[in-house]
Amino acid sequence: MVGFYSKSVVGILATAILAAFVFLWPTPTATAQSLGVEKMGMDNSGDPMVALRNRMRTQQIQRIATEGAVDPDEYVVGPGDVYSISFGGAVAITNSIAVGADGKLVVPEVGGISVAGLTFVEAREKVLDILRPAFENVPVELSLEAPRQFFVHVTGAVPLPSRYLSNAVARVDDAIQLAYTKRAYERSVGAAATTAAQRAALERSLPTPTSERPPLGEGFRPSLRDIRIERTDGTILTVDLMTYYATGNQNENPYLRDGDVIVVSPYHEFRDAVRVEGEIPFAGAYPSKDGDTLTDVLTIAQGSPDLSTLETARVARRHADGVSVEVVNVADVVAGRIPDPAIHPQDVVRIPQLQFDYAAVWGWVDGPGTYPIHGGVTTITDILEIAGPILDDADLEAAYVSRSSPTLITAPVDNSELDFFARVFYQAESAEPKNVVVDVAAILAGEAEDFVLEHGDAVVFPRRESTVLVLGAVANPGYVDHQPGEDAAYYIAKAGGLTDMGTQTYVLQSPNGQIGAGTGIEVPRGATVFANRAPLGSTPEVQSLLVTDVSAKRQYRLSTTQTIISGVSAIAAIITTFVAITR
Question: At how many degrees (to 10) do helices 48-57 and 28-35 cross?
């Protein structure tokens, strides 16, 4: 025991000297200052390679982030791991020991014990089996204090293939992300240097890339579904990170080990890919790999192993003699009732869009809103059984059906005789919702055949109005109480009469959209009386357009008159000549 305590004291002193050496070691910032980089307002804090080097220098005082307690059955011991060995009970003596580069754990009073390559459970049992006979009456315990750091090699279809510092609790995607990390110090940053000395200092402070290569060729991309891991013991693994991202299956993203070589293979996005299209969250092209099945690909495109929202999938495959299509019931595949179809490169998997028909009931009904229907089957009375009953204030005579999505293909007009303005007018009219010609009141009264609704239809029941709206060039525009039998002139007079700018009067009946011109038209309830005015531009530009329009119309009338006069003169000359000849 005396030898152990003397070794503990020596270990504590050595640790103190090492800590002092670390704290006195020049920091990367100080090195940058010596190069004159900080004077230009720059440092190396954004560069991943410099950050890794800094981690190496300060690893004695840094904590490594973990996913939680390490799994002792999975954690593999290696050089650089720091373990705590405790002796004693209430007042235990604890010593930190690192696994040496030769893979041995040098234990006090015992010597070196080979533990590299063992799982933590195996290493712990081996060490304790050796220590217990020497310390029969003293409790002994071994625990992992700090995971080691080591280098792994990332190569293949990555922007920066190189050797990267990692640790024993890092996973494969951690290393690959380092190989994809963009250099924080772009060459364009050098433009901030104003002198040759500053530019040279900046260049020296930049990390030297381990590989300079052009980007992947057009059409080629890195495959995260076929990543090869070559281990120092000869083991070779193949992992699928895209499946890991979709499912969280950690078997597809294993822990790294010392000296792992990670190879990312390229694939051609057309020749070697499977396309997933249709109503699925992550539609797109995915690299194919040997043994792929339909559920493998759908899981990645769904972003989840839950495929319950998918009904059918159409798998299209090109052959030498044509294209075949297989319709697969996804639920049956998931339940194991039918085999999971194999998927090959260049296959196209399409998830059909589910068709849901809806119609709306708005206005004065008990439950206005949008409701599911069977397009071409559900009728007005059917949907009113869901949204009804109709309220007392509803105006059945004014009820109507609006259709926002046409059920027929719009006829093309590009090759027609319509001029440009007619085509524009046609396109605007065909895009606007239209009222369906149907008498809702007669249907509800049983006097007309029920109307079948289509997807997007809306049945509207306006409120029974007791007023008429008067707008336009009148003295007091606003609402006027409706009087049965009165015409537009009555409501114009009630609104104060026409102003000096007033011209023509129109009656707009809602909701049928009928428009009548003249003051002698009888006005129904809820209609709008509009008094137009003489053209008047609200801005100089608009006024200029109006003047131009008036001038053009005047010029057109003059030219028309001249044409008529010329025609009459020609006819008169012909008649005169004819009379003179016949005498």
Answer: 130
Taking a C-beta distance cutoff of 8 angstroms, is the pair 124, 231 a contact?
no
> Which residue(s) pair with 227 in the sheet?
239, 264
In this structure, are 304 and 408 located in the same domain? no
Whether residue 197 lies inside any domain: the answer is: no
Query: Are 391 and 420 in the same domain?
Result: yes
Q: Please name the amino acid found at residue 351.
A: I
Q: Are 152 and 175 in contact (CB under 8 A)?
A: yes
Is residue 510 within 8 A of residue 527, CB to CB? The reply is yes
- Structural element, H or E, at residue 273: strand 273-278
User: What pLDDT score does 132 carry?
Assistant: 83
Q: Check whether residue 45 and residue 122 sit in a common domain.
A: yes
Count of domains observed in the chain: 5
Residue 523 falls inside a structural domain: yes
pLDDT means per 10 residues in the chain (583 residues)? 40 40 37 33 48 48 65 88 82 83 84 90 90 81 88 90 89 89 50 66 55 74 94 94 94 93 94 94 94 96 93 94 94 95 96 88 94 93 92 89 71 72 76 83 93 93 90 92 92 91 84 76 89 74 68 79 84 81 75
**Quick one: DSSP state of residue 365?**
B
Residue 287 resides in a domain: yes
Main-chain phi, psi angles of 128, to 5 degrees: -65, -35
Domain span at residue 504? 467-533
Which CATH number fits the domain that encloses residue 529?
Answer: 3.10.560.10
* 268 domain-assigned: no
Residues 538, 568: contact at Cβ < 8 Å?
Answer: no
- Residue 139, token pair as written in the block: 């409790």
Collapsing DSSP to helix, strand or coil, 31 comes out as helix
- By the 8 A CB rule, do 240 and 223 touch? no
57 and 109 assigned to the same domain: yes
**Exposed / middle / buried, residue 383 (Cβ in 10 Å: 0-12, 13-18, 19+):** buried
Q: Are residues 339 and 386 located together in one domain of the fold?
A: no
Contacts of 258 (CB under 8 A, 6+ apart): 78, 79, 148, 150, 151, 152, 232
CA distance 457 to 361: 9
Q: Where are the alpha helices (DSSP H) in 410-524?
A: 420-431, 440-444, 488-494
